[in-house]
Design brief:
This protein has 668 residues and is an alpha/beta fold. It contains 25 helices and 22 strands. The strands form 4 sheets. The protein has a 7-stranded mixed beta sheet with strand order 6-7-4-3-2-5-8, with helices on one face. A hairpin with a 5-residue loop joins strand 2 and strand 3. It is globular, with a radius of gyration of 31 Å. Bound molecules: adenosine-5'-diphosphate (ADP) and magnesium ion.
């Protein structure tokens, strides 16, 4: 290849996901600057960027307010706070040669004319022609200037052909502009050009690549072999015959979907979505029994120790009577017990293993793992999720991922096209509604009164504080302080405390005490956010609720309303509220349904934030947005289905072009 960039530049390009000149073609501008017209100095818009031109008259090093280079031109001063000696010389040469400076920047009125601070500029001969097209501004990374990037892209555009991977008939059917024209136009549009069709084309192709890749992944999975787990084995039959409650219709449907998948000799990858309290745990237990019936093992992973312990207790209560042996691996185990648990898992003596992700991370060996279940998988980081999936794939196990964070339909189409999805869209009967109340922090006294009254009636309450970890905010009240204070304010009440920094054994003991009713008020951080199930708790106070995200508030609120009583969730907020916080609180106040809340959340935060893209550091989609471009997602999905029916080579080329160096789209 000609004109390879030097290694240092190549490294920076790699950071942008550009590994070849070919990738440069699809590195599209964020925006443009209009340098096609000169604005006469007298007419230049004030405080908006403009291109101006003027003869250079003199240079000066000024010291006030700071050391700076001032270049005086006719009617214009340019100021540079950071400058090189070579710059001064460059301007001096321009004066000698009678050349002009052409500067692009924001023009500000100043004494004796106008000034620009740190403009982008060029020295030009009088009458030098202006560019005919807009100047692209590309996404870039530290140390890689626009000028370098522009030159690289331009070279690539000159040397590389842009092949259209879509059949002509498909382009016509979806009314798509040709790819080559679109890409070239987006890099260098004439002023005033309509770019909508070009962007549509690029977005369509990107979404199509995503759909193709996810569908291929799904296909590949179907070719793999996994143990078929019987859906009518003796243990499962016995358990279904004496369930602790009657399954809801939604649970029955989801159970059937799960058991049908597990009975196939191919690895399942199913996402089970169900709002908080919809009863996902029992479905997990049913799946585990299918594995045990096959003489194999199942692993259940939870994001927190507290939740893992709760699962352990629940599974034990349900399954131990059937003679199923369950191992519980947790941080608080003494070395000997830990060793024994690992051994039981390795020999197959334990049929079910329950724990945090340590189950997969610490090299725990399974005798015959057939089903891996990840509970509250949305709580694991993006990287962890991928890792868990990979590990389970290596073990050729079936996978069930459970999530209480509903994913809006559009995101589903884009990010879950490789998964099978089951939804529990119904809550168990007899749930009492939760009343949400918004109280300013000034009403603390009233709130304390409510806690006293509830506990006097034999109910229990949570007091949730914002996370204390690494928090430097002084006004963020630590759970420790809150605990002390509430004990003082509520004499006679038994007040417990649990937070993320406690030793696992202490955490477990605190949760146990609350579950058993030994403590009446539990002061806690968001460690109780996931899964915790104490039906007698009917009151929740969330302090500084303005600091929590929507999904978090919804999850927290889901801890109550699980018993026979109507429940109250009091959101204490500190004034003044930011607009964003006010909007969030309004949504949580007005909505009880997790899907509706997720839709609002997506709208308020945007797709990247919603999906936790921040953690992964890489945008999932560069150009398309599955919310704003929902119609395109549908079209791309249909087109992918169609293309996969044909030749595989163009499909691979298409994926390679758009996916390039990006890891992949298979993120749950
Ligand atoms: P989540 O979906 O949030 O994990 P859980 O599985 O923890 O929900 O269930 C919430 C509560 O509802 C638990 O106490 C569970 O035992 C109970 N439950 C689940 N399914 C039913 C049902 N069909 N009928 C009655 N109670 C149920
Ligand atoms: Mg749960």
């Amino acid at each position: 290849m000609t004109r390879e960039p030097p290694p240092a530049t190549a490294k920076k390009l790699a950071r942008l996901g550009i590994r070849s000149r070919f990738d440069l073609l699809y590195h599209l501008p964020l925006r443009y600057e209009d340098e096609t017209r000169l604005t006469p100095l007298g007419e230049a818009p004030v405080e908006a960027p403009a291109l101006v031109e003027a003869p250079v008259r003199s240079t000066e090093i000024a010291f006030r307010p700071k050391r700076q280079l001032v270049v005086h031109c006719d009617g214009l001063a340019l100021r540079f706070l950071n400058f090189y000696g070579s710059q001064t010389k460059q301007f001096e040469r321009a004066i000698e040669e009678g050349r002009l400076v052409r500067a692009y920047g924001e023009l500000r009125p100043a004494r004796g004319g106008a000034e620009m601070i740190h403009p982008r500029y060029r020295i030009v001969a009088p009458g030098e022609p202006l560019p005919a097209t807009l100047t692209p501004v590309y996404p870039t990374t530290a140390g890689l200037g626009q000028a370098t990037l522009r030159k690289l892209v331009q070279d690539a555009l000159e040397d590389e052909a842009i092949e259209d991977t879509l059949p002509a008939a498909m382009q016509r059917r979806y009314a798509l502009a040709p790819l080559e024209d679109s890409v070239r136009l987006l890099h260098a549009p004439p002023p005033g050009a309509d770019l909508a069709a070009a962007w549509q084309r690029v977005k369509f192709d990107e979404l199509l690549a995503q759909q193709l890749q996810l569908r291929l992944a799904r296909r590949k999975r179907r070719e793999k072999v996994a143990p078929a787990l019987p859906s009518s084995g003796p243990l499962l039959k016995r358990f279904l015959g004496k369930l602790p409650f009657r399954l809801t219709r939604a649970q029955q449907r989801v159970m059937a979907e799960l058991l049908r998948d597990l009975a196939q000799p191919h690895p399942m990858q199913r996402l089970l979505q169900g709002d908080v309290g919809s009863g996902k745990t029992i479905i997990a237990a049913i799946g585990c029994l299918a594995a045990v019936d096959a003489g194999a093992q199942a692993a259940v992973m939870a994001p927190t120790e507290i939740l893992a312990e709760q699962h352990y207790r629940k599974f034990s209560a349900w399954l131990a009577p059937l003679g199923v042996k369950i191992a519980w691996l947790h941080g608080g185990l003494p070395a000997a017990a830990r060793k024994a648990a690992r051994k039981a898992i390795a020999t197959g003596e334990a049929s079910i293993a329950i724990g945090t992700q340590a189950l997969f991370q610490e090299g725990v060996e399974f005798a015959r793992l057939a089903l891996a279940i990840v509970d509250e998988q949305h709580r694991f980081g993006v990287k962890q999720r991928l890792e868990l999936r990979r590990k389970a794939e290596l073990a050729v196990a079936h996978q069930l991922m459970m999530s209480a964070t509903p994913i809006p339909r559009t995101l589903h189409m884009t990010y879950h096209a490789d998964l099978d999805v089951s939804v529990i869209d119904e809550l168990p009967p007899g749930r009492k509604p939760i009343t949400t109340r918004l109280y300013s922090a000034a009403r603390r006294g009233e709130v304390l009164e409510r806690i006293r009254a509830a506990c006097a009636e034999g109910q229990q309450a949570y007091w949730v504080c914002p996370v204390i970890e690494e928090s430097k905010d002084r006004d963020l009240q630590a759970a420790l302080d809150a605990h002390e204070e509430l004990r003082r304010e509520l004499p006679g009440l038994r007040v417990g405390l649990v937070h993320g920094r406690m030793a696992p054994a202490d955490k477990a003991a605190a949760m146990q005490a609350f579950a058993a009713g030994a403590t009446q008020l539990l002061v806690c951080t968001t460690v109780i956010e996931v899964g915790v199930d104490v039906p007698n708790a009917s009151l929740m106070v969330i302090e500084h609720s303005e600091r929590f995200g929507l999904a978090q508030l919804h999850q927290l609120r889901g801890r109550i309303g699980r018993g026979a009583r109507a429940s109250d969730c009091i959101l204490l907020f500190q004034e003044p509220l930011s607009d964003a916080a006010r909007q969030r609180l309004k949504v949580i106040y007005e909505n009880a349904d997790g899907f509706a809340i997720a839709e609002h959340d997506l709208r308020l935060r945007g797709e990247g934030e919603f999906l936790g893209e921040r953690q992964s550091g890489q945008p999932l989609l560069r150009f398309a947005d599955s919310v704003a471009d929902a119609a395109l997602v549908d079209a791309a999905s249909a087109a992918a289905e169609e293309l996969l029916g044909g030749d595989e080579a163009p499909v691979r080329r298409h994926i390679e072009r758009w996916l390039g160096a990006r890891s992949d789209y298979t993120r749950v």
